[in-house]
Amino acid sequence: MLDRPDRPTAIFAASDGMALKTLEVAKGLGLDVPGDLSVAGFDNIPESALAEPGLTTVDQSMYRLGYEAARMLKSLVRGDWDGPGRLVLPTRLVVRGSTAAPGKCP
């Protein structure tokens, strides 16, 4: 996808691991991140801050995610689940050097 003439100007990967691999492939193709391609991920794993450039990512609390999953599972096992069928946890955008406005380079 990145070596096509009509390649994207930005990629939002489902995980930081996938986004970090995208950074690696982009570098291998000689693309400038974020000048030619902006890359963002999801998870905010420690490696995202160490990447070059630093990976823009969506941070989610893994502790809170695990806590809520365990709480829900415990209630289901006990048979007293009365909560929502879906739970949305808060996230926050962590902007680092892997993203820029189209046509702009920091």
Explained architecture:
There is one protein chain. The protein is α/β, with parallel strands linked by helices. The chain has a single domain, classed as Rossmann fold. Helix content is 33%, strand content 17%. It is built from 3 helices and 4 strands. It has a 4-stranded mixed beta sheet with strand order 1-2-3-4. The protein is elongated and about 55 Å long.
Major sheet: 4 strands, mixed
The ordered H/E elements are: EHEHEHE
Count of DSSP H/I helices:
3
Helix content: 25-40%
- What global shape is seen? elongated
- Computed structural class: alpha/beta
Terminal residue distance = 24 Å
Which homologous superfamily in CATH is the superfamily?
Response regulator
CATH topology, by name, is: Rossmann fold
List the defining traits of the structure above.
4-stranded mixed sheet; Rossmann fold; elongated; alpha/beta; 106 residues
